[in-house]
Description:
Elements: E1 3-13, E2 19-29, E3 33-37, H1 44-51, E4 59-64, E5 67-68, H2 73-78, E6 80-83, H3 95-105, H4 112-121, H5 137-149, E7 155-159, H6 167-182, E8 186-191, H7 194-200, E9 203-208, E10 211-217, H8 218-225, E11 227-234, E12 251-253, E13 258-264, H9 272-281, E14 286-293, H10 296-306
Parallel strand pairs: 3-8, 3-9, 6-7, 7-8
Antiparallel strand pairs: 1-2, 1-4, 4-5, 9-10, 11-13, 11-14, 12-13
The site of magnesium ion has 4 residues, from helix 1.
Amino acid sequence: MSSVISVSNLSKVYGSGFKALNNINLDIKRGEIFALLGPNGAGKTTLIGTICGIVNPTSGSVTVGGHDIISDFRAARAMIGLVPQELHTDSFETVWNTVSFSRGLFGKPKNPAHIEKVLKDLSLWDKKDSQIITLSGGMKRRVMIAKALSHEPQILFLDEPTAGVDVELRKGMWEVVRTLQQAGVTIILTTHYIEEAEEMADRIGVITKGEIILVEDKAGLMQQLGKKRLTLQLQHKVDAIPPALAPYNLHLADGGREITYDYDTKGERTGITSLLSDLRNAGIRISDLDTEQSSLEDIFVSLVRKS
Ligand SMILES: Nc1ncnc2c1ncn2[C@@H]1O[C@H](COP(=O)(O)OP(=O)(O)OP(=O)(O)O)[C@@H](O)[C@H]1O
Ligand SMILES: [Mg+2]
């Protein structure tokens, strides 16, 4: 897949002197769903704002569809739809007018058929003549997505699309995002919910303190999730793992009082039964054992702590 957004050595220092982005390098592939995961204040909104031309970068560069976001701002911005984190939705305008007007802001000729399709895709068609102020929170959020799609962008940014949205509606939102992807839209969403990144994303990026500390295919992360660790407490300290046990790739810990064994829960067999009998044959006696699973949450928390 070719990249549709390219961020190089991007940094942002706010007027206050605070460095919100520190040398970000990131490529977004055409047609993917990319989830940007990070704690409060990590720099997610700042990064999105910079790519969308709302925040001025301090250094570095960004291209969108090959267009530089500064020297070729209009062409870059026209490719992007943005649903901001803070929604301003107390409008007396109707849904139809709001969405149509937004298209006009991009200098695009009227296209009622497109607006109709967007409203239908987002299950808003029967609300087209309703004033925004009369809608529920979840509907308002969908109106904001419709607005962002009004000018037929190829890229959609969703900044915390499901913050404060109930479980049912969140699932509805995921459906909407998937439908958009099938229609060829590249989607970048930010979220605090690991579950959401797990459910939605093709790739996941983790950002903390203005730095991207991990970008990985979800499949790769899920593979790590399938790993479990068996920890065996030994009755007697050993100096080394007996050579007969080499195939298990065991590790000695706690000064020789503990052996750890990593295995794949998704594999055909875990190897635990034969390991235990081979240990017995090697004369190693176990006093206790324990297993633990690493979840995306664990990986995330330990990454953010370490950085
Ligand atoms: N206009 C600004 N002036 C000064 N500092 C700012 C400004 N906007 C954001 N910041 C700071 O930059 C850092 C990153 O903020 P940002 O909004 O990008 O984080 P975020 O990852 O989107 O957080 P959240 O999950 O809470 O939305 C924060 O420490 C914030 O206080
Ligand atoms: Mg934010």
